[in-house]
Amino acid sequence: AGGGPVGSAAEDGRPPAPERVLFPPTFSVSEIKNKQRRHFMFLRWKQQQRKEKLAAKKKRRKEREALGDKAPPKAIPKTIENQRVYDETTVDPNDEEVAFDEATDEFAPYFNRQTVPKILITTSDRPRGRTVRFCEQLSTVIPNSHVYYRRGLALKRIIPQCIARDFTDLIVINEDRKIPNGLVLSHLPEGPTAHFRMSSVRLRKEIKRKGKEPTEHVPEVILNNFTTRLGHSVGRMFASLFPHDPQFIGRQVATFHNQRDYIFFRFHRYIFKSEKKVGIQELGPRFTLKLRSLQKGTFDSKFGEYEWIHKRREMDTSRRKFHL
């Protein structure tokens, strides 16, 4: 009487089992006054949560293996993307109205192969080194593009000169504190003009495990998740920057991936490891775009008519509402 339990770990010579942390149901870390103790208890609580989650996952896997073919289908996890609020402007590929708009919009001459893309890439006034290098690398991604460093010349004067020299698009890279932070894309001669906020810019030398310099072959273009009418217009703007027929021998691909209204740009090269295995090698540069406005016609900051403007307080009320 009064001794330890019969057959305990101590009597058998086995090491004692690790002490399991048991938190009461109403436990709240925020109630702990001591900062160091509060941080320590929070880490222990997170560790226990991870262990319980892993144990439940192993249990479910064993149950599925035991049931075999009779196992129920795996549940689809809920994400912000698949819980997206329905947008009435989502494009139906078989819609006759959409087909008519595409046949008569500003990009119709390009998609009808009546024009060949010719791009002018310029910068804000007196750019710094990082912006200059970014423009030079961007010109190696977009075929038939030319870099012009403007000094004090207004865009309203540049656009007529571009039209006279048969340029089809104008790209302006803006910077703030020596860092590229904005991109203006204007389709010539009739617009539209899109203004993007640019972030997460990485030049080639800043990308780990990058490949060799890109070749002069025309790359493939991949446009992902541009589903609404607005997204369709933006996607057609990006597509019109590249020639129609990619040169597959170059194995290069430019990707514009839209996710939650953020457009991620990546430039890769295919690496054929064997007949069945294919890898990709990033060439750079990489950057992220966020659409701020879409303007009818060419660039006109004073009298321009806007088709769409991003208004944060009115449009960002729900995390599951996307516009592209």
TrEMBL record:
- Give its localization: Nucleus, Nucleolus
Molecular function terms, GO-annotated: rRNA primary transcript binding
Query: Where is there biased composition of kind Basic and acidic residues?
Result: 63-72
List UniProt keywords, sorted A-Z: Ribosome biogenesis, rRNA processing
Q: GO CC annotations?
A: nucleolus; preribosome, large subunit precursor
- Please verify whether the record's keywords include Nucleus: no
Q: Does the keyword Transmembrane apply?
A: no
PROSITE patterns annotated for this entry?
BRIX (PS50833)
One annotated GO biological process: maturation of LSU-rRNA
Cross-referenced Pfam families = Brix
Brix domain spans which residues?
117-300
Query: Which parts of the sequence are annotated with region: Disordered?
Result: 1-22, 48-76
Q: Which SUPFAM superfamilies match?
A: Class II aaRS ABD-related
Record function comment = May be required for ribosome biogenesis.
Q: What is this protein called?
A: Ribosome production factor 1
Its gene is Rpf1
